[in-house]
Amino acid sequence: MIAGSLRLRLLIAGAVSILLALGVAAFGLSLLFERHVERRTAADLTVVLDRLVAGLDRDADGRLVVADPPDDPRFEKPLSGLYWQVTAEPSGLVDRSRSLWDIDLPLPQDEPSEGALHQHHIDGPGGTSLLAIERRVVLPARLGGGAVRLVVARDRADVAAATADFTRDLLPFLALVALLLVIASAVQVRVGLRPLAAVQARLAAIRSGRAERLGTAFPDEVRPLAGEVDGLLDLRDRQVETARARAADLAHGLKTPLQVLAGDVDRLRRKGEAAIAADLDAVGETMRRHVERELARARRTAVAADAAAPVAAVAARVVEVVRRTPAGDRLEWEVAVDPGLAARIAPDDLAEILGALLDNAARHARERVVVTAAPDGGEVVVRVVDDGPGIPAALVPQALRRGGRIDTGPGTGLGLAIASDIADAWNGALRLGPTEPGRMTAAVHLPRAAGPQGR
């Protein structure tokens, strides 16, 4: 299903890309927030460190002490996560916060430059990880000289907890952003694929005869495709014209031999060779009908978008022709068609269809043939109804098949097949039925013509 849908593939690719991008964004934002919190924590620890430096003094016994320690209550609570420590070089521990209890902070084995701040990640009590800010200070003579290392540290779990809270608050917002981006991606895919839908609609119009070419009213990316399709249509038209010309040449080439054959048939009849004349006449009729069928097939792709045939006028003209035949002269004919009704078909092709249907009706009707036409939605349905014996329902497909015969009377079995071919070429259809003894209906379904005539 995914492989067959470009829209679905684009939507899935867009959704996956959005989720990956927002996942990377969530990770990056959490990392940036963690670093920001560490910097803020380091700045707060630096303030405490400055307070320690300012609080260094000598007691009554001359010992170096922190006379004014930081007043944060967490320094007084054992293992609170906030610690300070002062060590002298090289004597060792000078003082530490009560929160360290009896634990010494392990300082790196380095020799920091005087007055510079150093930031470390060191191990703390209970296996914790601490963020430590350290400064090495050279004491003045009034404090006995020498150098001390002062360090203030805080449990990094506080930073991790703040980062986790930030991430939890961030995820719902990112989920909302993901939803909005997926919706925007769906809209983008829909808008982006709209030209393809336009191409499909235009191709449907070409197939139905309502248009001839795709044209150039497409975006730059689709226009080359439309141009190639129009090029193929141009090639098809040239091939159709060639085929029609060859069919016309064939008809013209056979016209003279068929006329000669008809003359020979007449001479044979005058000489009394009626059986041979009848056989040759049947052969000539078969050849003529085959030529007519090939001409009809050559017309199948020559469908004009603006074609319109006035059904009433065409039907009346064909009825007048069939009425003059020996089979039609004995029948009562009726044409009941709205004069303003038009079908989207060439008038000559509609006459060809009605000629085949009326010829069949004239040969099989007992007394009466009725031609009607009425609009049906977007179609025009032309019906030829006679009071003949009808066709058994099981034999209807055979009657429409090329060369199909269901009787032994005159004809070649090509008339209905030719009519069906022509109707199909104009996106219509020929249907036989309902059929029963005493009533036979042949219905031609054709598209309605555009414009006032097609009302």
Automatic annotation (TrEMBL):
**Uppermost EC category:** transferase
Q: Name one Pfam family in it.
A: HATPase_c
Gene3D superfamilies given for it? 1.10.287.130, Histidine kinase-like ATPase, C-terminal domain
Give compartment(s): Membrane
Histidine kinase domain spans which residues? 249-450
Phosphoprotein as a keyword of this entry, yes or no, is yes
Reaction equations catalysed: ATP + protein L-histidine = ADP + protein N-phospho-L-histidine
Transmembrane stretches in the record are: 170-193
Limits of the HAMP domain: 190-241
Keywords carried by this UniProt record: Kinase, Membrane, Phosphoprotein, Transferase, Transmembrane, Transmembrane helix, Two-component regulatory system
InterPro entries the record matches: HAMP_dom, HATPase_C_sf, HATPase_dom, His_kinase_dom, Sig_transdc_His_kin-like_C, TCS_sensor_his_kinase
What Enzyme Commission number(s) appear in the record? Answer: 2.7.13.3
Q: Which GO terms describe its molecular function?
A: kinase activity
Has the keyword Glycosyltransferase been applied to this entry? no
List the protein's name: histidine kinase
Q: Which organism is it from?
A: Rhodoplanes tepidamans
